[in-house]
Amino acid sequence: MNQFFRIIVIIAGIKIIFASVLFAQTITGSRSLPDFYVPGGNLDVFITFDVDEANQPNGLIVREMIPIDWELNYADPVNHVYIQTEGLIKWLYTEIIGRPVVDGTIHYNLFVPVNENEVVTFYGELLYNDPANGYANTTEIISGNTLIADDAGTSDDSDGDGIPDSEDACPNDPENDIDGDGVCGDIDNCPYIANNNQSDVDLDNIGDVCDDDIDGDTVLNEDDNCPYDENTEQTDTDGDGAGDVCDADDDNDGVLDADDACVPTPLGEVVNETGCSIADLCPCDNPWKNHGAYVRCVAHTSEDFISSGLITEAEKDDIVSWAAESICGHKK
Fold first, then answer.
1. Is 216 within a domain?
2. Of 106, 131, 149, which marks where a domain is finished?
């Protein structure tokens, strides 16, 4: 914080010129303000002055010095306000209606910068023309008040958003859940995109809705045939665009993998209710007793496929003829 101070000058009655001569006390003043300030918050200050009723001056200035970075929100009572700048010190003059001067209170309110964290001391003066001393110009000191940030330097506005932690739904998120998903930004795995379920498939602390590789398999979502299931190799047996690890029917034979006894079956093969083709049920490389055993298996299985309406008689004849001409079951 800039260590220079701003001086607030509040005038009661008429404006007068003062010298530095000190006389007996006709007016005494005191300041009332909180014990702590809150960065990013507002601070109320009250200056109370007591006047000797037997010697009421016809003019009073209450002059306050405050940190130059702190902004004046308002002062009361106020007739008009104007600022005069002298170098690095700003003077705020506030003309107050009322004379002769009587007991009173001046209230002003300041905005504390969000990044404020230093010890701050307030100092003030009462300047008036004292009837008890021939209306001589007189100065009375208002004792200083020293403030520190709330909780001995640790603000109760942890994120500096101007909302006390006790009232802040997101005390550690200065943007206060900017995506409005009900999860504060400091713990939101996608703070700028709403995702109240906080889904994170690959557990990389980046929510799925803002993760360009949701499953963490090093294949970006836009190129991944299974964006929610890890599959670096991107195997897609049936070429349908869905990788095998997330495809419910890898061989696209119409029988779901969970019920398929023969995965994978070559594309285009006719299969029965268990997902098996004739070639699956009578594999050529099986240790057949002889070639005739292989051909009999193909013939009997083809009959079953005919009974199930899967192939025609002509298709069966072609399949059995192919088997008879094959080398399957022959001894090597």
1. no
2. 149
| Mean pLDDT for the stretch of residues 289-309 | 95
Reported as a pLDDT band with limits 50, 70 and 90, residue 152 is very low
What does the pLDDT average to over 168-186?
Answer: 95
Residue 292 included in any domain: yes
The count of structural domains within the chain is 2
Is the residue at 240 inside a domain? no
> Of 48-62, 140-154, 188-202, 267-281, where does mean pLDDT reach its minimum?
140-154
Neighbours of 306 (CB within 10 A): 14
Mean pLDDT of all residues in 158-165: 87
The share of the chain scoring above pLDDT 90, in percent, equals: 47
Nearest one of 46, 149, 60, 148 to 102, comparing CA atoms: 60
How far is Cα 18 from Cα 62, in angstroms, rounded to an integer? 12
Question: Would you tell me the crossing angle of helices 291-307 and 313-325 to the nearest 10 degrees?
Answer: 170
157 inside domain: no
Distance CA 218, CA 222 (A): 12
Domain that holds residue 18: 5-149
Spell 215-245 as b/e; 16+ CB within 10 A means b: bebebeeeebbbbebbbeeeebbbeeebbbb
- The CATH code of the domain that includes 104 is 2.60.40.740
Q: Is-contact 147 120, C-beta < 8 A?
A: yes
**25, 145: one domain:** yes
Q: Do 211 and 218 form a contact (C-beta atoms < 8 A)?
A: no
Considering the entire predicted model, what is its pTM? 0.45
* DSSP output for 302-315: HHHHHHTTSS-HHH
Q: What is the enclosing helix (H) or strand (E) of 8?
A: strand 5-13
In tens, the pLDDT along 55-80 reads 877 777 777 777 778 888 887 776 55
Q: Do residues 269 and 141 both lie within one domain?
A: no
Rounded to whole angstroms, the Cα distance separating 216 from 231 reads 9
Question: By CB neighbour count within 10 A (0-12 exposed, 13-18 middle, 19+ buried), where does 202 fall?
Answer: middle
The last residue of a domain, from among 149, 176, 208: 149
